[in-house]
């Protein structure tokens, strides 16, 4: 009898844990009773390529900053990272200034992001400007769906 009771308890506990995980996942994606998109809406107009190519140091440094800052915890680029918020082709959708705005969650970007994402992005405001510039250059260079 005690073995049957233990099995029933284990099943009940499993159902409870799975249910709570589902509730927390839904809650994470909701804010003020509305669903928050993982990626903010962007213009469907193509962004023209930059008039000058990035410096030979900017792309490797930008990639290094992307990796050092752990951007793949939240984003995927070139098949690496969290698939929830892919950045492949972001340079074709957003200008470098808008990319910078989303990286640091400026006022315009913050309006489209959840509070928790804005809080997480506040740390990027403290990046040295050379690192932030290199990161933006690296992301802007991603102009197709397969990455840069």
What this model shows, in words?
- The chain has 148 residues and is mainly α.
- It starts with a helix and ends in an 8-residue tail after the last helix.
- The protein folds into two domains: 2-35; 58-140, Orthogonal Bundle (Cytochrome Bc1 Complex, Chain D, domain 2).
- Helices cover 50% and strands 7% of the residues.
- The strands form two sheets. The chain has a three-stranded mixed β-sheet with strand order 4-3-5, with no helix packed on it.
- A hairpin with a 2-residue loop joins strand 1 (30-31) and strand 2 (34-35).
What are the segments in which pLDDT stays under 50 over at least 5 consecutive residues?
A: 31-40
**CATH fold title of the largest domain:** Cytochrome Bc1 Complex, Chain D, domain 2
Structural class based on helices, strands and sheet pairing: mainly alpha
Top-tier CATH class of the largest domain: Mainly Alpha
Share of helical residues: 40-55%
Mean pLDDT: 82
């Amino acid at each position: 009898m005690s073995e049957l009771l233990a099995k029933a308890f284990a099943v009940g506990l499993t159902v409870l844990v799975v249910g709570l995980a589902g509730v927390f996942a839904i809650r994470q994606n909701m804010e003020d009773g509305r669903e928050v998109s993982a990626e903010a809406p962007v213009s469907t107009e193509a962004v023209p390529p930059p008039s000058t190519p990035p410096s030979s140091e900017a792309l490797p440094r930008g990639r290094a900053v992307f990796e050092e800052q752990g951007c793949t915890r939240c984003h995927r680029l070139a098949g690496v990272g969290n698939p929830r918020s892919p950045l492949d082709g972001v340079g074709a959708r957003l200008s470098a200034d808008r990319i910078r705005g989303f990286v640091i969650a400026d006022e315009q970007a913050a309006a489209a992001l959840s509070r928790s994402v804005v809080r997480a992005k506040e740390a990027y405001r403290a990046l040295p400007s050379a690192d932030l510039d290199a990161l933006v250059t690296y992301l802007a260079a991603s102009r197709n769906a397969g990455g840069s």
